[in-house]
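Key result, reporting period 2: structure in, sequence out.
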């Protein structure tokens, strides 16, 4: 029976310890992890948007450079112009319009080799948007930048030639998040794992500190209880001898009672001194 009680007592202590550790971790670890996730999101959002803005500025730059190249090209040669408009290396398409607004040439998507069907669809959508923008049926859609999705960039520039001023429209698709999804996810999970380990370490430190504090308080309480219990014995003796002292008439017995009372008073003084010394030691700790 005693062995079972001890085992049950140990199990109860372990359960209480686990419960205490989880409480400490929830109060310290979960807020830290929540802040970590929030900070990671905003940091990643900031980085991705800036990457997209840089990619968008590249579309504008390539458009300006291409307009300069086309201004030195024979624009009556459609095949030559289409070759110049082959922007597959930059994930872009281009459409050239003459001074009267008629389409001269556009990127030949059939030359875009090794192209995924989904990406080909995006290029076709960009070409259609360019036609609508040129016709005034749709506004330029470069107003909002998405961090976690594809972005479409449009640029327009004049192409000056002896025959007049042509209009060049370029469009590009960028997506830093889809491109670097695996690497960024792995990096984020790595940072989260490190922070989770850190929160566990912090919770464990608090837990050990709490256990040490509880052990000290328990030992202190046990010591005080033991000293208080030791005080009860001389107090009872003094009480008994005092009653006898008052009741007895014989002088020789009164002397004996007085000696016993004084003896137990000294014992009480010794216990009180021990309590004071114990308290002073605890205060120094």
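The corresponding designed sequence is given below.
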């Amino acid at each position: 029976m005693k062995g079972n009680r001890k085992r049950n007592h140990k199990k109860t202590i372990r359960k209480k310890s686990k419960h205490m550790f989880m409480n400490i971790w929830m109060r310290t670890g979960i807020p830290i992890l929540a802040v970590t996730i929030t900070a990671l999101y905003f940091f990643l959002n900031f980085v991705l948007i800036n990457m997209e803005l840089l990619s968008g500025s590249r579309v504008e730059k390539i458009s300006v450079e291409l307009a300069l190249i086309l201004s030195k090209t024979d624009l009556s040669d459609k095949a030559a112009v289409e070759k110049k408009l082959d922007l597959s290396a930059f994930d872009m398409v281009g459409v050239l319009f003459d001074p009267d607004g008629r389409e001269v040439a556009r990127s030949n998507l059939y030359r875009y080799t090794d192209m995924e069907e989904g990406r080909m669809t995006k290029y076709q959508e960009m070409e259609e948007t360019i036609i609508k923008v040129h016709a005034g049926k749709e506004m330029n859609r470069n107003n909002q930048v998405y961090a976690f999705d594809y972005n479409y960039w449009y640029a327009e520039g004049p192409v000056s030639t002896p025959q007049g001023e042509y209009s060049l429209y370029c469009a590009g698709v960028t997506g830093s998040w889809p491109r670097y999804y695996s690497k960024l996810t792995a990096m984020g999970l790595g940072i989260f794992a490190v922070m989770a380990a850190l929160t566990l370490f912090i919770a464990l430190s608090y837990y050990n500190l709490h256990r040490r504090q509880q052990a000290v308080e328990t030992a202190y309480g046990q010591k005080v209880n033991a000293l208080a219990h030791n005080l009860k014995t001389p107090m009872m003796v003094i009480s008994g001898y005092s009653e006898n002292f008052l009741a007895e008439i014989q002088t020789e017995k009164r002397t004996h009672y007085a000696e016993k009372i004084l003896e137990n008073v000294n014992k009480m003084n010794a216990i009180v001194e021990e309590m004071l010394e114990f308290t002073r030691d605890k205060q120094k700790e």
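The domain at 58-177 is CATH 3.30.450 (Beta-Lactamase). The longest strand covers residues 151-161. This case is discussed further under Risks and Mitigation.
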